[in-house]
Design the sequence.
């Protein structure tokens, strides 16, 4: 196991009825910028619960943060926050809203240059430099409610980039599984796949005798496989949605990655598919990961065999065993309604390969746990997704 330092300051408040706990978490004298998305929280009752709970707080609202939050939209929130003198950010929604709110929290106090420099990591935001952020999660998927990660799109330049900072950890996150009850099936499906791939990015690398982390990762994968189809049922089942929500948080709260190598090439490639073609984040992961793992099967053989045996209960050895395990992954994704090929979206794999190869080549990108996946290999992987 590699050396590591673990830090996670986020307080999790989990369970039905916990939105009322907001009043215990935000200073009474705070001026709060409430960030949310397209308005679904106004239809499912969450917005009213938040406003009722915080009726005695000074509240400034900013709605309209889109999926794959756009930098230009977030700059409007940042300018509003500066104008109104806000000193606390509250994000109510899914991963995109929370990711966007993280940049808002970091961007309001940053006036030394362009806020985009935070995303490109030309500027490193250190602990204490961002405004405090709290969240009310309504869409389990990204784990952003309990980590310091944020992914921001800039549609004007067709870019989608991740930035990471300890300053971006929420100070608290409220997770009420009943807030997921009105989610469309597609968003539930996306959340399950997103969480699953997050785990695999931290697990399907190479062994370092990190037994706790491996078992934790396998437990999350098994849970998602067990509840995946049931999570799509209507009416929703509380226990299923609770396990789904907590699994998604644990998939990327920085616990299972401690002391182990990480990949993230699937995410790097997926971000470009979103930037160029507008696919949902989880959709990009599903059309890349099974093919990337097969392409990299020799380097990842030990962990993929372990995945086959422990997560799918398969027996055998070598490439046939790995192929069976990846076919099981594809079948699981398909059973919950998630396509696994670019051609399912009428995207030409050869065209996508050429566009994304060119972008990675221009950046000199090398990806994966060994930094061995070059732009040429990315093109090979994308051409397999047909």
Sequence:
């Amino acid at each position: 196991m590699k050396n590591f330092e673990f830090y996670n300051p986020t307080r999790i408040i989990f369970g039905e009825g916990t939105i009322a706990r907001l009043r215990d978490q935000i200073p009474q004298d705070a001026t709060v910028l409430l960030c949310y998305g397209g308005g679904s929280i106004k239809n499912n009752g969450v917005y009213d619960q938040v406003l009722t709970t915080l009726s005695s707080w000074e509240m400034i609202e900013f709605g309209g943060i889109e999926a794959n939050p756009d930098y230009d939209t977030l700059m409007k929130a940042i300018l509003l926050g500066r104008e109104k003198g806000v000193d606390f950010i509250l994000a109510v929604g899914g991963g995109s809203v929370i990711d966007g709110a993280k940049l808002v929290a970091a961007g309001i106090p940053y006036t030394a240059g362009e806020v985009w420099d935070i995303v490109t990591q030309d500027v490193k935001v250190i602990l204490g430099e961002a405004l405090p952020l709290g969240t009310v999660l309504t869409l389990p998927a990204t784990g952003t409610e309990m980590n310091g990660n944020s992914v921001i799109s800039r549609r004007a330049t067709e870019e989608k980039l991740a930035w990471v900072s300890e300053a971006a950890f929420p100070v608290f996150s409220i997770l009420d599984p009943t807030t997921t009850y009105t989610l469309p099936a597609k968003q539930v499906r996306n959340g399950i796949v997103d969480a699953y791939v997050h785990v695999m990015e931290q697990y399907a690398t190479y062994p370092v005798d990190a037994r706790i982390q491996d078992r934790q990762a396998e437990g999350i994968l098994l849970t998602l496989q067990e509840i995946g189809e049931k999570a799509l049922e209507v009416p929703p089942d509380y226990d299923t949605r609770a396990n789904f929500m907590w699994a998604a948080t644990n998939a990327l709260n920085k616990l299972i990655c401690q002391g182990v190598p990480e990949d993230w090439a699937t995410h790097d490639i997926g971000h470009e598919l979103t930037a160029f073609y507008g696919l949902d984040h989880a959709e990009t992961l599903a059309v890349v990961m099974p093919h990337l793992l097969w392409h990299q099967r020799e380097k990842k053989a030990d962990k993929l065999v372990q995945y086959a045996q422990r997560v799918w209960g398969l027996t055998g050895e070598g490439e046939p065993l790995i192929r069976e395990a990846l076919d099981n992954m594809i079948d699981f994704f398909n059973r919950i309604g998630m396509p696994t090929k670019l051609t399912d979206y009428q995207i030409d794999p050869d065209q996508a390969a050429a566009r994304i190869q060119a972008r990675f080549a221009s950046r000199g990108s090398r990806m994966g746990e060994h930094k061995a996946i070059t732009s040429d290999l990315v093109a090979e992987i994308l051409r397999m997704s047909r």
Residues 185-383 form a domain with the Dehydroquinate synthase-like, alpha domain fold (CATH 1.20.1090.10). The chain has two domains: 11-179, 185-383. The mean pLDDT is 96.
